[in-house]
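Subject: two folds for Thursday's group meeting

Dear M.,

Sorry for the delay on this. The cluster queue was jammed most of the week, so I only got both jobs back this morning. I'm pasting them in the order they finished. Each block is the input sequence followed by the predicted structure tokens. Could you check whether the formatting survives your parser before we put anything on slides? The first protein is the one we discussed after the seminar.
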Amino acid sequence: MYHRLSPMSEFDEKAATWDDDPSRVKRAEDIVVRLKSTIDLSQVKSAMEYGSGTGLMSFVLKEDIREIILMDDSVKMTKVARQKITD
């Protein structure tokens, strides 16, 4: 018998070191640059990032959008994001 981890438990296992990968940080920054070139954020007062993981994109957007709600199925990813918010 073998046990396969569910996708969320795999993300839970990776949560603590997720932001340590420079390619993930760079990808979030690149996505935000593209988003800003497409959408005028000056009128955006709040947003929700679903599948936010540790909040990499939201942290890049925090100077542009006053309130961002982060949501993710991975409990540990959201714990990391919450810790980053309180730091």
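Second protein, same layout:
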Amino acid sequence: MDIVRIATAGSVDDGKSTLIGRLLYDTRSVTKDKLEAVESSSRRRGLDFVDLSLLTDGLIAEREQGITIDVAHIYFATASRKYIIADTPGHIEYTRNMITGASNVETSIVLIDARNGVIEQTRRHLFISALLRIDTVFVCVNKMDLVGFDGSVFASIRSEVEALADKIGFAGALRFVPIVAKDGDNVVHRSTRMPWYDGAALLESLESLPVRRLDTSLPARFPVQYVIRPHSDEHHDYRGYAGRLLSGMIQAGQEVEVLPSGRKTTVRSIAFAGTRQDCALAGESVSLELDDDVDISRGDMIVASEVPARPLNAFAAMLAWMDEQPLAQGKTYILQHGVNRVKAKITVQSVLDIATMETRSEPSAFGLNAIGSVHVRTAKPVFADSYATVRRNGAFILIDAFTNNTVAVGIITEGAAA
């Protein structure tokens, strides 16, 4: 059964948690005891309706304030698909949670309050969706009941979002759905209160969404996490290299190259959960045995010899800052790429102005939630691709060496330079 991963985004009170609660409720994915608990909690709060947002907001602070603070992962299924939804916070100070929640999804749902239209968080979340190369973004214009189900309001918001997507170069597909999450209009079932909308309900569109398949045409990238040496009589000569294949495919008998040494050898065997197999596909955790004794340790990378990864110690990247303390240019940070950690220095080239979606070439500060173009120089090479080429090998995080906080996430751009 296909699995579809979804991230929700939007500003505070746009109705993300209510929308997810409605999906759970209308697909009968809520247990009886949990629904009774939500109904009881709604009555205690003096509500004359069942607050379905309580199905996802599990923290006490979230329920008290009626907001989402942390990323919650919600699971539900239909007859044809399974869904994993990352319910991300809407407050601007929790934008970092949205980035991490959306880093491994096929699609995102951006909610817009019909009364407020496109606001700063809408622009920020759409830009992040473009940055992460999310294939499809559903723009759900919520609370249509509060604008009298006026189709012109929906059309105006749609035109503004389409213009914004063109401006930022969003390459994915945009799908627009007018909804009332509280009542369920156009969420699982089509609404009769908006006859001017002739499109599908949200779940109908999700059910027909193309699922991203493993692309075995991508170059093979296998970072070594552990060297296996059993030292037993049965396997006294065995030397295996364990890790998770990031992309592409590796086959027994294939010629590969080991980085950083550049030595070429052949894959003798591939083991998955103790069983030998002919090949390994992206996403599988396997152990490789090679024909030659090559000096390999944790952090090295085994790649397809015909398309090797380039060792980079200077490259361009897009960076999203996630720490309260702003970036200090000239300061040494720890860059983690896969299992590798190297020292790095960051130079800011430009910063995105969310209000205008223009870049400033002379940034005064690069603080919390800032997004911009940077130049990275590392003390030792990393074996990376551009994010556009191999997603899983084109991203990194920055760590403050003194506080050990994760301060930023970055993606290597096409302009990466050796």
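Two things I noticed about the second structure. The first helix runs from residue 16 to 26. Residues 59-69 have pLDDT under 50 and may be disordered.

Cheers,
T.
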